[in-house]
Design goal:
There is one protein chain. The protein is of the alpha+beta class. The protein has helices at residues 3-9, 24-31, 73-78, 84-94, and strands at residues 37-40, 50-53, 56-67, 105-113. Helix content is 28%, strand content 25%. Strands 1-4-3-2 form a 4-stranded antiparallel sheet.
Length: 115
């Protein structure tokens, strides 16, 4: 299925790609190649869409939903963390009062440096 067809099967975006990675620490991880995915409670980008971070472009390569309980150490590494616990603690520190529920679905946005 082409990028266009995949994007047509996804629900409408809830935010724009320029809001996908905004915190300075997260931007630094992306620029250093330590963060290659961003999980959000809404869909921020289409596959093939490009975001610009400090003059460097990154292309979204995949967008899909995932339950928090499905996260593995590899997923945490995509987010720039060593373990799922470290990633969870980081998210909860950014969003005080947010519950971490294994069945809660998030949108995964995977990306790579644009060629």
């Amino acid at each position: 299925m082409s990028e266009m067809n995949v994007n047509e099967t996804l629900p409408a975006k809830t935010c724009s790609i320029d809001r996908l990675v905004t915190k300075e620490a997260e931007v630094s991880k992306v620029l250093a190649g330590q963060k290659t995915a961003c999980r959000r409670n809404g869909r921020y980008a289409d596959i093939g869409e490009t975001m610009d971070l400090q003059g460097t472009s990154f292309t979204v390569t995949n967008v899909y939903q995932q339950a928090l309980g499905e996260l593995t150490a590899e997923h945490a590494k995509q987010e720039g963390h060593e373990t799922v616990d470290e990633y969870r603690d980081s998210i909860l520190a950014m969003h005080p009062g947010m519950p971490w529920l294994p069945q809660m679905k998030v949108w995964v946005h995977e990306f790579k440096k644009a060629e």
